[in-house]
Amino acid sequence: MKYCSTRAPALDESGRKHFCEILLEGLAPDGGLYLPEHYPQVDQAQLARWRNVYRQQGYGALAFEVLSLYIDDIPASELRAICDKTYTQAVFGTPQIVPLTQLHDALTPAGQAPLFLEALSNGPTLAFKDMAMQLLGNLFEFELGRRGEQLNILGATSGDTGSAAEYAMRGKKGVRVFMTSPLGRMSPFQQAQMFSLQDDNIHNIAVEGVFDDCQDMVKAVSNDLDFKRQYKIGTVNSINWARLMAQVVYYFAGYFQATTNNSERVSFTVPSGNFGNVCAGHVARMMGLPIAALVVATNENDVLDEFFRSGVYRVRSSADTHETSSPSMDISKASNFERFVFDLLGRDGVRLKALFGDELQQTGRFDLSADPAFGKAATVYGFESGKSTHADRLNTIRTTFERFGVLIDTHTADALKVAGEHRQAGVPMIVLETALPIKFAATIVEALGREPDRPPQFEGIEALPKRVTRMAADPAAIKAYIAQHCR
Ligand SMILES: Cc1ncc(COP(=O)(O)O)c(C=O)c1O
Q1: CA-based nearest residue to 97, from 134, 139, 60
Q2: Residue 159 pLDDT greater than 80, yes or no
């Protein structure tokens, strides 16, 4: 299997690469995103076999089956070992790794197809990012070891991504993490999660400034190409194909749990921001997983809902990007969306370059409403969408707790609200749960008047010793720090 850029001309095979070549890369050199040159097809017999693999051998074995269709430059025995050591009950809390909970009570209409939550947030940082990031840590360690190379991951975080990256890379050979965050601006829980890590290869840097200052520092270092090369600076951002590929697996695992045989179809509703999570659902559907609808749920930052309703993709200015109570979906543009548009427009890289490389850069928008391909987003690719607001979130958290005794976080609440508007007779709906409520406690208190329960392993973490370096918002300071710690 080779990978091509979404902006490469269709017949130009010169830039195509194998998996391990793109594993440590971000964007393709032409500014596009990598995608497999075709989606491997899973026929009925294979789907039936995978159902048994998941049931009898577990999630790690299912992950190996899916991943081995996309990775041909890691020996099968090594890849299997990586999958098995990544997806364990010890790390993810249950043997199913992504268990389903059915939401059902006396008010549920008789005969209505079931509604499920799929728990993706029982990993070390209590958010779905762990599902992919934990695999990435093990893939990085394997590939860097094989090459005899090192990687210094430099990032900026306002909370979630930083901790998922740190928990994935802690103790990994060949990898160091330098994670900047705005001093005093993360919640005490988030600070404790990150700063209590004592591993030598994890460096927390609290920057005297706001999140944008952290991002500017990271950009300044990345733009210094000599420094970047000398110190092997890399990132773990959400456009990495390996992260998306890892997420494909839980669509299969959700399907196998919600159905008893492969003639059934299910729909998924996905809380969406950068379009990474739901894009993995699109890939699973393209592989042949019987998905009826992929419902994109946004918060007030409705860039994606607007596109699926109107055909207009319009990025927002910072002033037009709302700070909401589902903050991980507060995006101004959806950085993985280009992957879907590539498929929607018949994999026409030249057109993608004109749309994303030129038109979007110059005007901040493009309009596909008059293009016959736009209708296919719904009719061929199964996409639907909806939006949820702060009031919806509070209401959904409250009613879900009162009716089903299940406490959900704010992002999952957005999805559950939108899912309710997209139920189809006879088709089970699976809502992806992307974080645990403890991470967004203030809104839970607002909705329910009580604090969410804290998983036992996080009791008292605020009191643990912290390992963090305070720094001025100055690129020279972070460069000096990196140089000092890479000796
Ligand atoms: C808790 C949570 N839910 C949903 C999302 C949205 O996922 P995506 O950006 O892949 O669309 C994120 C992304 O960071 C998240 O952290």
Answers
A1: 60
A2: no
Output the six-digit token pair for 314: 């319009």
118 pocket-lining for ligand 1 (C-beta < 6 Å): no
Annotation says 417 is catalytic: no
184-202 mean pLDDT: 91
Encode pLDDT of 249-269 as tens digits: 999 999 999 999 999 999 999
Which among 128, 268, 325 is the best mutation to test ligand 1's pocket, defined by most ligand atoms within 8 Å of the CB? Answer: 128
Query: Ligand 1 centre from 469 Cα, in Å?
Result: 28
Please give the radius of gyration of the chain, using alpha carbons only, rounded to the nearest integer: 22
Q: How far is the CA of 273 from the centre of ligand 1 (A)?
A: 6
Whole-number percent of the chain with pLDDT over 90: 85
Q: Does residue 127 have its Cβ closer than 6 Å to ligand 1?
A: yes
Q: What pLDDT shows up at residue 319?
A: 85
Q: Cα separation of 369 and 347, whole Å?
A: 18
Q: What are phi and psi of 64, to 5 degrees?
A: -60, -45
Query: Is there an atom of ligand 1 within 6 Å of 271 CB?
Result: yes
What is the sign, positive or negative, of the torsion defined by CA atoms of 97, 61, 255, 20?
Answer: positive
- Report yes or no: 66 and 248 within 8 Å, Cβ to Cβ: yes
CB of 277 closer than 6 angstroms to any ligand 1 atom = yes
CA distance 413 to 383: 20
Q: Is the CB of 272 under 6 A from ligand 1?
A: yes
Domains of the chain, start order: 94-119+241-446 (3.40.50.1100), 129-237+460-485 (3.40.50.1100)
Taking the centre of ligand 1 as the mean of its atom positions, its distance from the CA of residue 160, in whole angstroms, is: 9
Separation of 272 CA from ligand 1 center, angstroms? 6
Which of 402, 396, 391, 404 shows the shortest CA–CA distance to 421? 396
Residues paired with residue 17 on neighbouring β-strands, in sequence order: 3
Strand ordering across the sheet containing 175-182:
233-234, 151-156, 175-182, 202-208, 469-472
